[in-house]
C-alpha cells in the first residue's frame, strides 16, 4: 500500500488517462455481453481496477464522461467492503466550516469548528452567524436527555387473546431476552422493551445502548435472536424483523415522543443588546416569528417538526461526519422554542432523535473521519459512548445556531419591517 499522496496521484492519473489493461478489456466485454455482473467484478479484479472497469462500462452505456467521479483520495479497499457496492467513484460535496461555537455540555465543552457539507449557498454563513451569537452570549447549554437505538419486530398472533399472551410472556421474560441479546455483541446492551398490540399484530420495540456506534447493525443482529426466541416460546409468527414501530428513516411521532438514538436539548439566553447588534431585530419579534412560523404554522400544516430548518444543519453535519444521511429526517422532528425573559429571550431546540455514532458505518471513510477529528470525536470514547454523546451535543448546538440565524433573518427582513410600518418599531 502506498502512502496517501501516492494513492491520490495514482488514482487521479488512472481516472484521467482511462488506462485499461487486457484483463480489464475482457471484463468490459463480459459486462457488455452479460456473462458477468457488475458486482462480480470485485471477485475478479483488485478494488481500484474493478471500480475503473465498472465506471468505463457505465460511461459507454450512458454516453457520459465520468472523469470527475473517478478522482478520489479515500481508502477504496475499505469502502468497497464496508460502505458501497458496485462502486464507480465518488461524488464530492463542498465542505464549509462555521464557528467557532462555544458549547457548555456534559460531553462537549469548549469551542468547536463545525464541518458542514452542503451545496446550498448561504447555509454555512447563516450557521456561522448563529455561532457568533451563541459564543458572544457565553456558549450553548446542551444536555443529552435519552440514549437508545431501537428495532421493533412485528409478529402475527392467532387472535387477540393470543396477542395479549405474547405481550405478557415478553414482559415476564425481559431478563432472559436481554441475556440473549447480550450474547450477540460485546458492545451493545438491551435496555428496554415496549410492546404494542393492534388487532392480531404484536410489535415489540427493543431499545439498546450502542455505546459509540449508531448501532443499527448491532441492534438488528441482536433483535433477530430475541425475535426468534419470542416466536419459539409463544407460537407467534415473526412477520418482519422491522415492523416500522422502530421507527427507522421515516417521520414518526413515536421517535419524537419516546426518542431514538441520542435525544438532545440545547439552549441559549440572548440579551436585547445582542439581538439588536447581531440580528438587527428585537426580542418580541423573534418570539412572534417563532410562534407564528415554527409553532402555529407547523401545527396548521400537520408537520411533525416545529422548527425553521433544523434538518438542513443535521444533514450537512451528517454528510460531513460519516453519518447515515437518511437519518437527517429525524432532525426534522426538532422543536424550537423562544421564551421571553427580563433581559431578552431564551432560545432552545429539542432534538428527540439523533441516530449518530463515531465508530462504524461511514465514520471510517478518510474524509469523514477527518471531520470527526476536527470535532475531537473520532473513534470510540473513554468511557465508551462518550464520543457519540459529544457529537450529538455538538450537532444540537449547531442546529441551535442555524435556528437563531434564520429566525433573526426572517424577523429583520419581514416582520420587523411590518412592525415599523405599523408604528410598533
Task: Describe what you observe in this structure.
The chain has 425 residues and is α+β, with helices and mostly antiparallel strands. It folds into three domains: 4-82, no CATH class; 95-146 and 262-421, 3-hydroxy-3-methylglutaryl-coenzyme A Reductase, Chain A, domain 2; 153-240, Alpha-Beta Plaits. The protein is built from 16 helices and ten strands. It has helices at 4-17, 22-33, 41-44, 47-62, 76-82, 123-136, 160-172, 174-182, 216-234, 253-258, 272-279, 283-301, 310-320, 328-331, 366-375, 386-421; strands spanning 95-105, 109-117, 140-151, 154-156, 189-198, 201-209, 237-240, 260-271, 335-340, 344-354. Strands 1, 2, 3, 4, 5, 6, 7, 8, 9 and 10 form a ten-stranded mixed sheet that branches. Strand 1 (95-105) and strand 2 (109-117) form a beta hairpin. Helix 2 (22-33) crosses helix 4 (47-62). The radius of gyration is 25 Å and the shape is globular. The termini are far apart. Residues 1-18 and 414-425 have low confidence and may be disordered.
Question: Notable features of this structure?
Answer:
Alpha-Beta Plaits; disordered N terminus; single chain; ten-stranded mixed beta sheet; alpha+beta; 3-hydroxy-3-methylglutaryl-coenzyme A Reductase, Chain A, domain 2
